[in-house]
Every structure is written in C-alpha cells, then in structure tokens.
Amino acid sequence: MGWARSTGARRSLAVVAVAAVLGLTAAMTATPASATIGATVVRTADAGGGTAEISGRLVAPGAASDIGGVTVTLAGVPTSGTSITRTAVTKPDGTFTFRALAGGDWTYTMTAPYQGTTFSSDPVSVPTGQGLTIKLPVFASTGSPAKIKVASWIVWIDVTGDKVAVEQDLSYTNAGTTAYVGTTPVAGASASAKAAVLLPLAPGAGGFQTLGRFEVCCSAVQGASWAHTRPINPGGSSGTLRYEATRPESIAFTAQFPADSITFLVPDGTTVSSPQVTRSGTTTDKNTTYVVYKSGPVKAGGAVTLSFSAPAGSDSGGTPWWLIVLVIGVLVAIVVGEVLVIRRRRASAAGAAVTPKPAPPVKAAEATKPAKPATGPVVTATSASVATAATSTNGAASSTTGRSRAEVLAEELAQLDVKFENGELTDEAAYRRVRESLVRRLVATVESDPKSLA
C-alpha cells in the first residue's frame, strides 16, 4: 500500500518520522505497552539562538476570561538531533510568543491546559528568519460522545505472504460546543488524559505510523485497541493510523462512534468475505488496483468483521507447482503400494497352489533329438518393449468408469516403475525417456485440470 496516497491526504514517510518523535508525542514501537514521552531539553521561552518566531493566541468560545496566565508548552523536533521544549505564559488576552527559534527543518507543536484538559495545535514549521502566527483553540470538555460521529472511515488492507498492513483514515465531526475527551484512562499518560479515540487492531499490531490529529500526543495499545488522548474538538478533524501485523483469519472493525459506513479497499487478487459488505467497483493507487467494499451504517459499539486470505503463491496465477508435485507424489505412492500388494498376494497364492506332478522321464531316443526351433520372433527388452510396458494397461484403465486421465497416467507411471525394479525392462535409457514423457503428460494434465486428482 502506498503510504503517500495520490489524494493528498498522506505525506511522505520522512515527515511522518519527524512528527512521530515530538516532545509530547508517544514514542510508538512495534509492541508498545503504554504511552511514553520522548526525552527533551527544557528551555525558557526566549532561550536559543535561532531567528524564527511563532506568535499565538488561545481562543476560547464566548467571552472567556480564563485564557490569561496559562502556561503554553512548545515542543520542537529537528530532522536529526535532540528535541526541545520551551514554555511561555499567556497574557490576559491569551497571546504568547516564542522567539529565537530555529527555522527550516524544525517542526513545532504547542499544547496548553484548559479546564482540566490539554489542547494541542497541529505540527507547524517556520522558515528561517521569519515569523508565524497561529491560533490554539481551547474548549470546555465532556465525556459524553452524543455529538460525535464518524464522517468517513476508509480502511486500506494489503496482504503480503503472512503479513498484513492496515491503514485507517478517519474523519470525525463534533456537532457540540464542548470537546470530547473520553472516559477510558490511557496507560502511561497523565492522570487527566483519557482515550478520546479507540481504534481496532489486528493481534500483534506494531510499527505504528500516524498523520493528522493522531500525530500529536499521546497513544498506547490497550488490549485489542489503539488509544489516543487528543480531544475531539467541535467542528471537524481527521487522522490516519497505519500498522503491520501477522495476517489473521479476520479483523473486526468495532465502531467507537456511529458511522454511515466503512469503506474497505483490498488489492485485486486478495480474497475477502463478509456478509456485512458489498462490492462497489475498483480504484487504482500507486499502480495497484484495489477492489472497493462498503458496509451499511454501523452503530456505536457495532462491528464489521472482514475475513480475507492472500492470493495464491504461483507466479503464473495457476495451481502452485509445489501442490501439483505433492499431489502427484502422494498418488504415485498409493498406486505403487497397491501394485506391490497385488503382486505379493499373487506370489502367496502361487506358493500355496498344489505342486504339479513331475513330467514322465524322457526316453533316451527322444533325448537325443535336436530341439525344434521357435516359430515366432524373438522378443528382447528394447526401447519398444519399454514403451509397450508403459501402455499395456492403458486401454483397460482408460475404460474404467469415473477415472480421469490424470489417474490413468499416474497408474501407468507406477506400473512402469515396478516393471523396471523387477528387472523386466533392461534398457534403462529407454525406461528413463518413457518415464519422463509420462511425468510431463501427468503434470500438464493436472495443470490444465487441478481437480482431476481430487
């Protein structure tokens, strides 16, 4: 799956890597157990030697008078090196300024506490020697999700061997006037932080990558969910989570909030099944064709379960070669075993038969007579006899009701091997040629009709 989608909703992995190590962002690893805060160097608001500047203002709804005297924390992350944090206290009108910042490749995020909840800005960058002005909205908070809805939920699924990569792109709408903060505590986060967002995960998920609202503070894996603490503010917001896991038989996508539908995009050739989705055309991304599946409306707490499997492992798209060889080997072993059992039974029956009476003694006169020459041609074990041995039972076997051509060829191959092992075929080179021809015909028959050996 292309991480940077053509829709513009995704950025490069380099930008993701920068944002992922923000001073106040959880350091997500392949198997995180809790949210952790990256190491930072704390400096005062105006410490440093840069020439860039960020000015901002807390914006609260209504005529809020409690936006002065709030400590705003700035987290700065370079493309390489040590991240930093700085603090500044807002003036009575909620304004704040961070000066002497490094510009260029640095990324900055600002956070501020307000009425028991921490609010964050999106990551920003500022050119060297220039200034940037931002607004940091703050709201009263609520633990009720009544006003929250999933406006769009798109799931990209890529299967490679025994691995699955899942990307979830979500857009939220908050029709209320308060920020939703959740009610579930998040392990490793501050005591006041709750899980505003809970997203389903496949077992063993790891290698997390984030975009949008999920880039900023703080996340953890809790059971079968990925938890994120950033509040869902009034209006709209969106975020992306991507991870990898060992491919399970199915994944249940449980909706935290009501959703009009869930859209699944699965590469053409990967088989998926669910009674809750219907096929809805195809789309192409990064030269990969995806089949689109859509579910109906999903209630809060409801789930859409998607079962899927990887494409066949054959380069030609037909029956895998190893499966053909395995089936042929098993069938040949069975046929050879049956032939050997029949031969042993015949041998046992011959041994148990009554011993014939000895022939009468030959008279002396008759003993001196020369032997009468044979009237027929002398038969030797030539290549012709080998070919005859390979086809001697073909007519009878082919006429057996319900037997396929592949079964007939397999039995011919087994009987040819038995004759050679018993010494009935002395021309080994001819035996090898005939045997190779039978094998080629058998493989071609199975490839054209894999069910012929079922």
Could you explain the architecture of this structure?
With 454 residues, this protein is α+β, with helices and mostly antiparallel strands. It folds into three domains: 20-140, Immunoglobulins (Immunoglobulin-like, Sandwich); 148-309, Immunoglobulin-like, CATH 2.60.40; 316-340 and 380-395 and 402-454, no CATH class. The protein contains seven helices and 23 strands. It has helices at residues 13-20, 321-352, 364-367, 383-391, 394-398, 405-421, 428-448; strands at residues 41-43, 52-59, 71-77, 84-89, 95-101, 107-114, 117-120, 131-137, 141-142, 148-160, 163-174, 179-180, 197-200, 206-212, 219-222, 225-228, 235-246, 250-254, 263-267, 271-273, 277-285, 288-295, 303-309. The strands form six sheets. It has a seven-stranded mixed beta sheet with strand order 14-17-11-10-19-22-21. Strand 3 (71-77) and strand 4 form a beta hairpin. It is elongated and about 110 Å long. The protein starts with 12 loop residues before the first helix and ends in a 6-residue tail after the last helix. The model is unreliable at 1-47, 310-318, 362-382 and 393-401 (pLDDT under 50).
